Amino acid sequence: MLTRFVLPRLGWAVVTIMLATMLVFGAMQALPGDAATQILGQNATPEAVFTLRRQLGLDQAPLERFITWLGHALTGNFGTSLVSGQPVGPEVGRALLNTSFLAGITIVVGFTLALVLGLVAGLFRDRWPDSLISTVALVGMSIPEFIVATLLVLMFSITIPIFPAVVVAGQNATIAELAPSMPLPALSLMFVASAYIIRMMRTSVIDVMETDYVHTARLKGISMARLVVKHVVPSAILPTLNVVAMNVAWLIGGVVVVESIFNYPGMGSLMIQSVQSRDLPTILLITVIGAMTFVICNLLADLAATLLNPRLRYPRNSK
Amino acid sequence: MITATKEDLAIDVHGLDISYMSGSRRVNVLSGVSLQLRQGEVLGLVGESGSGKSTMAGVLLASLRTSSFVSSGTVHLDGVDVFKLAGKELRAFRAGHVALVPQNAGAALTPTMRIGEQLTEGFRLDSAASETCESRRARAIELLKLVRLPDAAAALEKYPHQFSGGQQQRIGIAMALAARPRLLVLDEPTTGLDVVTQAAILDTLTRLHKELGMAMVLVSHDLGVIDKMCSQVAVLRRGKVVESGDTSTVLRNPSHPYTKGLLASVPRVTVPGIPPSLDDAAIDAFEKGAEMHPVDGALYERLAPQGTAPVLTIRGLSVDYNRKPKPGSAPTVLDVDLDVHAGEIVALVGESGSGKSTIANVVAGLQGRQAGQLTLNAQTELAPRVAHRAKSVRRAVQIIFQNADTSLNPRRTVRDAITRPLRLFNVKGLTAEQALAEVGLPVNFTERLPGQLSGGQRQRVGIARAVSAGPSLVLADEIVSALDVSVQSSILRLMDRLAKENNIGFLFITHDLAVVRSVADRVVVLYLGRIVEEGTVSEIFGSVSHPYTSLLMASVIEVGDDHSGAIAPGQDEVPAGPPAQGCPFASRCPLVMDICRSVRPPAIEVSGTHSIRCHAPLEKLEHL
What we know:
The complex is a heterodimer. Helix content of chain A is 76%, strand content 0%. Chain A is mostly helical. Among the domains of chain A are: 32-75, no CATH class; 103-277, MetI-like (MetI-like fold). In chain A, α5 runs antiparallel to α6 (128-142), α5 crosses α9 and α5 runs antiparallel to α11 (224-252). The two termini of chain A are 17 Å apart. The mean pLDDT of chain A is 85. By secondary structure, chain B is α/β, with parallel strands linked by helices. Chain B has 22 helices and 22 strands. In chain B, the strands form 4 sheets. Chain B has an 8-stranded mixed β-sheet, sandwiched between helices. A 6-stranded mixed β-sheet of chain B has the order 6-7-8-3-9-10, sandwiched between helices. In chain B, strands 2-1-4-5 form a 4-stranded antiparallel β-sheet, covered by helices on one side. In chain B, α16 crosses α17 (432-438) and α18 runs parallel beside α19. Chain B is globular and about 75 Å long. Chains A and B meet through α10 and α11 of A and α2 of B.
């Protein structure tokens, strides 16, 4: 299992992360300006820019710089921020922690709710609970998250002012300080990310409800609750796992738009700032973390699918 | 006429109409069905696809398709009106009174639940909550022993996919018995199983009926199975009961032309020749009051071609699905020699897993091989992969699939399907219309889509597609297994005519011995990928055969047999793979000797055309 299943995927994971960093590095080269011009501003003399470039090591050839970065990165040294001069690790780590907290709430509350709603919609296929849930999910898929976020702000911090509209705690805020302003960003994320999970779960439940084994179980005269919990859910949840994994990765990889709207000091906000200041080491570290999350979440989803499926756990002829 | 009171009847269906709406039109799935069955008796519901027999099985559990409804009539079981039940009452009724053995137990067992739990949940409603875990477990083991599942205690911890098809069906029966039902409904309980497994399951059912004494309803398309199992029978056609009564009367002395036609169209292992097909139009006319002409029951006997050249020669074919052979395992197909001559129909017979489809796929170039030589028309070597074969070779070898509905593109017209090979192989002077006429379809079918055709018509299109390119060899993989018997014989006659007139050699793959008897010239019997016997059709069905062939013959159930013989317990247990040495059939053979487990038996020539691979002396292989 380990050698046949996990190891090849880990190999591919390394390739994926390499490709992602190369792409991002290349894209940053293609952008006009670099960290030196961004720090010194429009009125800087060419001499000052040249000196700063030399200090920051930006005068070397791009390929050479990438290889140097890669060599250091492999030893765990991701370099220092070109803007603050501090090592990028702690700064990105703080942002990652904040984002993980936001994502954690969304996953635990939102995704559980989404699976339940998808199940209900599938069980009540084509009746009013299904119509209601499916319509809301469709709306969630169609509206961009910044509109959802704006509407939530309009409703819950302007019309009925119960939550703060934006985070005012600043970059170095602790989780405790951030907690009161968490609900609105979390709600926006839940709304958008849950939509896909609801629809996938609904389709999956409908498929399972039409199988022979559910029909047979029904004719055995068992209760509806037992039918759903024992016969329907274990099979229905399998195809949904991959959608859940993609959404988890999307959340942790930095939800740029929602974090920016609420000024939430997470990975997304940090990425925007770093791109603006052309702070390459920070951007590359965020890229590495984002790519790793995608790879790990998908790997976990595949592993979970294998573990939940008895056909894969117990091959027919091994007794 | 039954004169019992309502409460004494296990089943009392009166004037039942089941309908669904198609637009604003009401379509009847069942119309005016009235049936009665006394306690402890067995009723057979027999009919072809679309007869409403499965709907009738559902009705007895108060279960209908979501869009269907009862438009009139009543269904009483033990005096209870089942369609008046709802919610908890209905659940309790299903849990304690009537149980269903589903058609395909492999799909009807929940794949994510252990067998033990699926069995014990059936106890829940009928027994006291105080019942302990151990006693429930003991009861589950007892049930599995009742249906003769080997190693019952260990089976409780296993998942459905860890069992063979026959074992899954046994579990399905045990699950239905869990609630101690007074009525057991079996929907095609043995369709899709091998003939030996079918015989063993039916023996189990007969025994269970004797021991437990519940009433049973058996739904089947197989008249032989109905004849063996049922005391009463109702023949359904297009949602109506055309004839019902005692099985012996209805099946031995039928009065309705449909029953007569159905019985006449079933091929028999005991009688050579292709039976006549059922005249549907004449029966429709009869139903409307017209005169029915007597059915011509004469069989058509095929003549084997004499001295024609070989179109396919297979020598020493071996196929191994294990890329690196493991110790103790053996190749899936080993050392197969086989010839098909021009105009000849060679039947390749065996149970599921015998490697017959593997051999067809190797010939078609869809499956690789480890050893062996394939020669076409005694001159061209067949490359292992179809991609490496010349166009003329690909044209010469064509295949017809079992399921015509899935092998035709549903969005392509019949014309597209047939003209594709004509264009690909640049065949001049043949139009789609001519190709359709060749297989007996109306020429105006060219613009139809597969969905607008019946099963038999689709299979004809599949045949037209295969033969339009002018092949010398056609691989016919179970081409009649999915068809109703009434259509089956017309397809067999078509195959006979194409072999004769177009000089095509057919490699006909099937598990159905009666079909083999009716159409084949020569027969090759395969067991676990090894040839155990081959010969002309009369030799195979003659007095000397391999013990495996004898077992297959003994397992066939036909109308009019005495049905008293039973398969010895364990005879239906097929090993997972062939043994590394010795005779593949050794584990099931009644004549097994020590030598059988170590030395592969040599081919004994019974005659110039008949050979048997067995260590036992020929006189022991004669039928009793």
